[in-house]
Design a protein that fits this description.
Elements: H1 8-54, H2 58-61, E1 71-73, E2 75-78, E3 81-90, E4 94-112, E5 115-123, E6 127-136, E7 139-148, E8 151-167, E9 175-178, E10 184-185, E11 187-189, H3 194-201, H4 205-236, H5 242-251, H6 257-271, H7 278-281, H8 288-299, H9 303-311, H10 316-327, H11 329-345, H12 348-353, H13 364-374, H14 379-411
Antiparallel strand pairs: 1-11, 2-3, 3-4, 3-10, 4-5, 4-8, 6-7, 7-8, 8-9
């Protein structure tokens, strides 16, 4: 037998095809990642801007054009007094940080002899009339010899104005002149963390936060208990009319909440629960959606586990909490997250059941609604309040996200 060998040109073509495939994969994946990063940035930008605005001063929030990071004017101590710093162009040195030493210096607005758009505001005492004139855009202007730093140039006087004298704090010999109104203030990135303390102290916002946490815990805990027990009863316990009762109970989901507001409020009045946190908890402890979710999950659990537990002498209550509940963590976490977000963000019912004068029982949504009138001139405080309201449910959702994925994955397994 004679050995056969692959021609060199065939091997080269195979290598080229392999390299081309790798390049196509890199370009394809890189393009996909670039698109996803772009969409993620667009989705996260409002949230990041909200957080940044919560750390700004009131003046910084009204800035136009707006800037993302919180900034405050830079200051320095000069002769025992705090003075603002400016970023001003110094002839021959570029932009320099200086402070305003004198205002109202008589000056002129000078333009280049061949370009009326390029102007500089400079004191008249540092300029001398040459007795010549020039014509710029059809207008005859006098020509002055102006001393700019160490240079002297001929410029056309457009009009008279006033400037400020800016001096370096560490070297008084470094000075320049500029129009104060248009001078750019020197700034530094300085987050205002005290905004959160201020908003907590404003109208008992800390009390509203505590009330919201308490109501949310009670609603979530009560809903989980009733949904787990109800779901187990409808899925495993046989009793007369079980399916009809379950259908009627689930049918209540179709009733809009706005239809129930008036009868529910009259019920709260009859029980004496108006203007109490109990009115925000008890009506939502029994949830048809939660019962339906847990019932559907319990149905998927094999009956063999339950029968084996019965043989070992376990009662239904023990079977529920030692077998069904540990196997149902994805469904329980999903229901807990849904109810947490619902209870935390509830607005219509607290607005109806809690009197506006009873600020001690306010929840966050009502406190935010009333905050607009108190802090209307300080949007940074409103942003700080929103951040405090959002950060807890955002954290809960991030921590429980894997249970959503697990619940979706297991729901497709039959």
């Amino acid at each position: 037998m004679t050995a056969t060998s692959t021609p060199p040109n065939v091997e080269e073509q195979a290598r080229r095809a392999h390299r081309a495939k790798i390049i196509r994969n890199i370009i394809g994946r890189g393009g996909a990642y670039a698109v996803l990063i772009g969409f993620a940035t667009a989705m996260l930008f409002p949230f990041l801007f909200m957080v940044a605005s919560a750390l700004k001063t009131p003046e910084d929030t009204f800035r136009y054009p707006p800037k993302i990071f919180p900034r405050t004017p830079a200051t320095a101590q000069v002769d025992g007094a705090d003075v603002e710093l400016y970023s001003v162009e110094v002839p021959g040195e570029g932009l320099t940080t200086l402070y305003l030493a004198e205002q109202g210096v008589q000056a002129g607005l000078f333009a280049q002899l061949d370009d009326v758009e390029t102007t500089v505001a400079w004191p008249l005492q540092l300029a001398s009339d040459t007795g010549q004139t020039t014509t710029l855009e059809g207008e005859t202007l006098p020509v002055y010899s102006v001393q700019l730093g160490t240079e002297t140039v001929d410029l056309a006087l457009v009009r008279n104005t006033a400037v400020g004298r800016f001096v370096a704090q560490d070297d008084p010999s470094v000075e320049t002149f500029a129009v104060v109104r248009t001078a750019e203030r020197a700034e530094s990135i300085d987050p205002q963390w005290q905004n959160f303390n201020e908003i907590i102290e404003l109208r008992d916002f800390d009390r509203s936060l505590t009330n919201t946490i308490l109501v949310t815990i009670l609603v979530v805990g009560g809903t989980l208990f009733t949904s787990i027990t109800g779901g187990y009863a409808f899925s495993r316990v046989r009793f007369a009319g079980r399916d009809k009762i379950f259908v009627a109970y689930i049918g209540s989901i179709m009733i809009p909440f706005v239809v129930l507001i008036i009868p529910l409020f009259r019920l709260m009045v009859s029980l004496g629960w108006v203007n109490t946190l109990g009115s925000l908890v008890w009506p939502f402890v029994f949830n048809a959606y939660g019962t339906f979710l847990m019932r559907q999950f319990f149905v998927s659990i094999p009956k063999d586990l339950e029968e084996a537990a019965f043989i070992d002498g376990a009662k239904r209550w023990k079977i529920l909490w030692t077998i069904f509940v540990p196997l149902s963590w994805p469904a329980i976490a999903t229901l807990a997250t849904f109810m947490f977000l619902y209870a935390w963000n509830s607005f219509i019912w607290p607005l109806v059941s809690i009197n506006g004068a009873n600020s001690e029982d306010f929840v966050l949504t009502i406190a935010l609604q009333t905050l607009g009138g108190q802090a209307g001139e300080g949007p940074n405080l409103i942003f700080a309040a929103i951040v405090l309201s959002v950060i807890i449910p955002f954290t809960v959702f991030v921590l429980a996200q894997r249970y959503f994925v697990e619940n979706v994955a297991t729901s497709g397994i039959k």
